[in-house]
Amino acid sequence: MKPVKVGICGLGTVGGGTFNVLKRNAEEIARRAGRGIEVAQIAARRPNPKCETGATPITADIFDVANNPEIDIVIELIGGYTLARELVLKAIENGKHVVTANKALIAVHGNEIFTKAREKGVMVAFEAAVAGGIPVIKAIREGLAANRINWLAGIINGTGNFILTEMREKGRAFEDVLKEAQALGYAEADPTFDVEGIDAAHKLTILASIAFGIPLQFDKAYTEGISKLTSADVNYAEALGYRIKHLGVARRTDSGFELRVHPTLIPADRLIANVNGVMNAVMVNGDAAGSTLYYGAGAGMEATASAVVADVVDVVRALTTDPENHVPHLAFQPDSLSDHPILPIEACESAYYLRIQAKDHPGVLAQVATILSERGINIESIMQKEVEEQDGLVPMILVTHRVVEARVNDAIAALEALDDVVGSVVRIRVEQLA
Ligand code: HSE
User: Fold this and answer.
1) What atom of ligand 1 comes closest to residue 194's alpha carbon?
2) What pTM value is reported for the model?
3) What is the annotated signal peptide range for this record (predicted)?
4) Domain identity same for 318 and 353
5) How many structural domains is the chain composed of?
6) Which domain covers residue 423, as residue numbers?
7) With a 6 A CB cut-off, is 102 part of the ligand 1 pocket?
8) What spacing in Å lies between the alpha carbon of 246 and ligand 1's midpoint?
9) Most buried residue, 170, 189, 387, 423, by CB count within 10 Å?
10) Smallest Cα–Cα separation from 38: which of 62, 60, 6?
């Protein structure tokens, strides 16, 4: 059988890795796909010194690939929202299948892209968009297809996890670690996407859609970064038996779906709390399978290429399938997506770590306890440290039971209004993931 021809758009880290893996494992991949897979064209602004592209035709214009009649599958690896959207829509219009690693593109424009792809009967595959080399999309979309998914929680940004790990293990400064992550090639072009949780929110949006069968709604995700975390809180969390991780959490509730990315205290003995450095992990809880955990490299040249090439193999295997029998993009049939709302963060529920800086007076703890109890907030544990020399204040650390966020907001406002409380109350959400 004739080989399937693919065009790679973008020959950066992931594009270069994809070319190399397709070339190195060509025989093994063909045995799996049932046909050879040939890179017929590459679009790149500059060569990648890690790739020997040999006689493969190279163009500087990505639309040459989308318009090339020889090409069956366009692999979009240029990143970004705007040009990537135009490229993907053009490829679909030309009847080509698309494989992409672009989480921002899928999270923001996925609904439009999938609608167009269905109209043309082509596939759009995006395993590499979430957690690099971990086949978590396939696991949720296909492996857990029997389940009603209750919740999922993931460490889905390697740069952020690397920063938190280095801060905790070596007491290193935030900026210093971020520079190292950039040098390792993990950080986004705009590193605020990593540290402010935008990259994780893109990925969480995609995971939530395929877990719950809801349209992609990135604009409704709550996003809080790690840039304001202090080593004091990292250490207090440790003393209480927790680790702080930058977690994406999606949860089904009776009133809607929670979709939130924020620093989170997790019990230190959970497997996911011990996922360190640039590694990613996603925990999924389904009613039949219970909790499952997927762990591996969330970024990197060949780890991400592994997911891209697996998608290419999937597309090749399904080339002769009727379009209506393709695995649905968002796991559920498009006319069966749920319109249950995404909840605002005030309506989400979790436990809370609160750190209060108080004056060292009798009765302060009683006032704090009263404010919490008046709002129905149950205290799970409390830790009061010795007076700090530099300001004479007492750090008071509380962990609450689960409560709706609006009540905690109200309590924090009342606490900050107390004469004996100085500055802002630090609030970090806590998840048991049990
Ligand atoms: N910047 C991302 C990360 C790359 O650090 O995880 C993979 O999406």
Assistant:
1) 1
2) 0.97
3) none
4) no
5) 3
6) 348-430
7) no
8) 13
9) 387
10) 6
